[in-house]
Amino acid sequence: MRILVTGAGGLLGTDVCRAAESADVEVVGWSRSELDVTDGQTVAQKLRRLAPAVVVNCAAWTDVDRAEVDEQRATAVNGAGAGNVARAAAATDAWTVHMSSDYVFDGAKSTPYLESDRPAPRSAYGRSKLAGERAVQRAAPDAHTVVRTSWLFGNGGRCFPRTILRLASERDVLTVVDDQVGCPTFTGHLAPVLIELATTARLRGTIHLSGGGECSWCEFAQAVIDAARLDAQIKPGRTEDMERPAPRPRYSALRSERPEVPALPQWREGVIEFFAAGVRAR
């Protein structure tokens, strides 16, 4: 079986490729420079030549604040681009595993979002990700898994823990919002499950797959500082004081109501493994 990973140079794509190799699955990884998902004709041509059995689409516009000021470009990648990949995959009888986000929800709930909850994104980024979900559903109605996940962090690129470690090396006190709650998800835990979904499970439709438990960004930052054994003080802050361009959901924890969906380890275990993989605070 041959798996294609788009966005293979990114945070999640890097670990998905590694997980495939560890599972002894043939994997081809294409970074953004190797495959521009917004170019539908090229996507179709390249997938036809490669003929993968599964495409794991990790290609995405991930800059939430930039999406707010350039929604058209964000949607070209996250919306139309996702459709291009799924359409080309369907044309070659390949299954699509497409990555989506907790930001498709508005954050008004106080209990975890389930697959049956109605999406209502508040930001341009969230709207672009919801557009991608719908494009995949239209392009490959019987051969797709849409995976909503959240607060990704890992060893393959820029992420929240790395930012906290950098800032902690520059400042004694860090202010981090404590009024946004979600599920941090370690890519080292998520990636092997995505390979399982690609090779054996193939769950049709939409699933939620995030780290176990929930926390605020402030709690997440404190866990990183504690694991790194740094002396920086983490001070709770308010979202309204941060003056960010894009609105964020106040609560976006995800859980699955589908019994066949595997559970990921607790997010704190992900923090431990993040450091065990070789991250250094100093």
Mind explaining what this structure looks like?
With 282 residues, the chain is of the alpha/beta class. It has a single domain (2-159, 184-213, 253-264), classed as NAD(P)-binding Rossmann-like Domain (Rossmann fold, 3-Layer(aba) Sandwich). It contains nine helices and twelve strands. Strand 1, helix 1 and strand 2 (26-30) form a beta-alpha-beta unit. The relative contact order is 0.16. The mean pLDDT is 96.
CATH class: Alpha Beta
Mean pLDDT: 96
Structural class: alpha/beta
CATH homologous superfamily descriptor: NAD(P)-binding Rossmann-like Domain
Tell me the distance between the termini: 42 Å
- Name the helicity range: 25-40%
Oligomer: single chain
Q: Could you please say which CATH topology applies here?
A: Rossmann fold
The CATH architecture designation is 3-Layer(aba) Sandwich
Q: Please summarize the sheet with the most strands.
A: 6 strands, parallel
Specify the overall morphology: globular
Number of helical stretches of at least 4 residues:
9
Kindly estimate the percentage of residues that lie in beta strands according to DSSP. 15-25%
Arrangement of strands in the largest sheet: 2-1-3-4-5-10
From the alpha-carbon coordinates, what is the Rg to the nearest angstrom?
Answer: 18 Å
Number of domains: 1
Low-confidence stretches: none
Order of helices and strands: EHEHEHHEHEEHEEEHEEHEH
Strand tally is: 12
How would you summarize this macromolecular structure in one to three sentences?
Helices cover 40% and strands 17% of the residues. By secondary structure, it is α/β, with parallel strands linked by helices. It has one domain: 3-Layer(aba) Sandwich (Rossmann fold), CATH 3.40.50.720.
